[in-house]
Each structure stands twice: as structure tokens, then as C-alpha cells.
Amino acid sequence: MAENDFKQHVHSSEDFYALLELESSATEAEIRRAYRQTARKYHPDKVGASNQAALEKFHLLQIAYGILSDDSLKELYDNGRRARQEQEARKSAFSDRRKAMVEELERRESNGRKRKVEEQQAEQRLEQLAADGKRRRLEMQDRLRREQLQADALYQQDQQRKEEQQMGTESQLDELDRGISVRYVKNDKTERWDKAFLETKFAKHGTIEGIILKEKRLKPPGAKHKQDYFVATILYKSIREAHAAILQFPEAQAMDEELKAVESVGWVVARKNDTTTTTKEDTGTAPIKSDESRKIPKFSFNPKLATK
């Protein structure tokens, strides 16, 4: 190629040193040797005329060698190459500074957003703590209120229970005051005595509101073994009627053969200075002395209770 052809490539941006794998300080001999070694790889006789990329590379190698082997052209190329490198360095430095500035700006913005998020989170935590505190206070107030209501309810229940117990005791005592106890030995005849039978025998003394009939084992005086007895508790409408039943029983027993099986008729609750009790002692038969006969039965009459 003519020198004028090489001049038009002096200001080419192509790095001819890199193309020949040389340093910019390479000598003429090093340039010539590198060209020969590289050109052989891309020579048309070796790669063929159809390998367009290899042909273009071979043509570019010729231009590189033509410029670098000519001192005047090499100087022009080196000056231009150096100027381009300095410009690239300035651009790179500017780019680095700009990149650093952008990164710093982004970092500050990120830190700013982070601080804002942290402030928002802190504010949310404070609001949550306040809400939790309020909720706990309300729960405590509600619990105390419910505990107070429960305590009041328990107090009312306790008072009501005491009142009911007092009323029940008074009612039971009143009923027991109107009750008489009838005791007789259990045998084939008396086993047939039911509440209806007893009511028939004792209703002549007054209105009967209820009868409780129980079977007990008692020990008669002088006996070694206990014996089966029936104990009937009869509740009259009034104390006067109950008193009449006890006082009039000996007369009724004398006139009624069946009632002779009865061994004792007396008060359910013993009265102080009141010895009104009819037993077979009055007819020559000693009464049974038993702790069972002195116990107050646990019962409650209801006027509506059936006596059968």
C-alpha cells in the first residue's frame, strides 16, 4: 500500500499495538517480527479467499505495520493514540467521579429513606405500646368489675342461703312442733300398715298434713338383740291437734284392737317440762329406751304432700 493510503489511517481509533500484541515502546524489530507472526495466521493463502473476517483482519494488520514501521507516521499515530487515551482517562475519571457522586447521592437518599422508615416504625411502636397499655388497662378494669360483680353475687347467694337456712330451720322446727312420733314392732300384721292406714287411725284427732314412715332396728329394754320397728312421724295442722292425739291415744288404743301393737306415741321434738308421752308403760309394758327415739328426724313436710 502507498504511504498516502497509510496516512488516512493515522488518526484511526484502532489500537494497532494491541492488534499486534505489542507495547507502545516496542522497537522496529519487535514490530516487524510481531507483524510477520500475526500476518501468517490470517494470510489469504492460508485461510482462503472466502474467509472475509480473516481477510479484513489481514488488511488491518498491513495498515498497522505500515504506520508503525514508518517513523513519521508512527509519531503521528502515537500522538493521536496518546491523546485519545488521555481523553478516555479523563472521561473515565469524570465517569468515576460522577459515579461516586451518584452513589453518594443514592446512599444519602437511601439513608434518608431508612431514617424515615425507622422513624415511622418507632412511631408505630409507640402507638402500639400505647394501644397495648390502654387495652391492658381496659382488660384489668373489666376483670376487676367482673370480679366485683362475682363477689357481690357470691355475697348475695351466701346471704340468701343463710336466710333460706334460717327460714328452713324455723319452718322445720315449726313442723316438728306439730309432729308426733308413733313406734311399733314390725310383724306380719304391722307390715300392712301403710300411710293410709295410719291416717285413718290418727285423723280423728285433727287434720294430718303428712306422714313419714321409716323402718328402724331398736333394742328393747332387757333384750340382747335389736328388733325391727316401724317409726311413723305424723304432722298435724296445729300443735293443739298433735297434743290431742297424744293425750287421747290411750283411750283410742283401748277401743281399737289393732292399735294395741303401738308401743309409743310422743312428740317428735321433746318439750321442756312436757312429759306428754303415751307408751305401753301405761298398760303394763315398758317403753323402749333408745337413742334412736330421741333423735330429731331430718324431714320437711309439705301440706300438699300425699299421705299415701
Automatic annotation (TrEMBL):
<dbReference type="InterPro" id="IPR001623">
    <property type="entry name" value="DnaJ_domain"/>
</dbReference>
<protein>
    <recommendedName>
        <fullName>J domain-containing protein</fullName>
    </recommendedName>
</protein>
<dbReference type="GO" id="GO:0005681">
    <property type="term" value="C:spliceosomal complex"/>
</dbReference>
<dbReference type="InterPro" id="IPR036869">
    <property type="entry name" value="J_dom_sf"/>
</dbReference>
<keyword id="KW-0539">Nucleus</keyword>
<dbReference type="GO" id="GO:0005737">
    <property type="term" value="C:cytoplasm"/>
</dbReference>
<dbReference type="Pfam" id="PF00226">
    <property type="entry name" value="DnaJ"/>
</dbReference>
<feature type="domain" description="J">
    <location>
        <begin position="15"/>
        <end position="81"/>
    </location>
</feature>
<dbReference type="GO" id="GO:0000390">
    <property type="term" value="P:spliceosomal complex disassembly"/>
</dbReference>
<keyword id="KW-0963">Cytoplasm</keyword>
<dbReference type="InterPro" id="IPR052094">
    <property type="entry name" value="Pre-mRNA-splicing_ERAD"/>
</dbReference>
<feature type="region of interest" description="Disordered">
    <location>
        <begin position="273"/>
        <end position="308"/>
    </location>
</feature>
<keyword id="KW-0143">Chaperone</keyword>
<feature type="compositionally biased region" description="Basic and acidic residues">
    <location>
        <begin position="273"/>
        <end position="295"/>
    </location>
</feature>
<feature type="region of interest" description="Disordered">
    <location>
        <begin position="154"/>
        <end position="173"/>
    </location>
</feature>
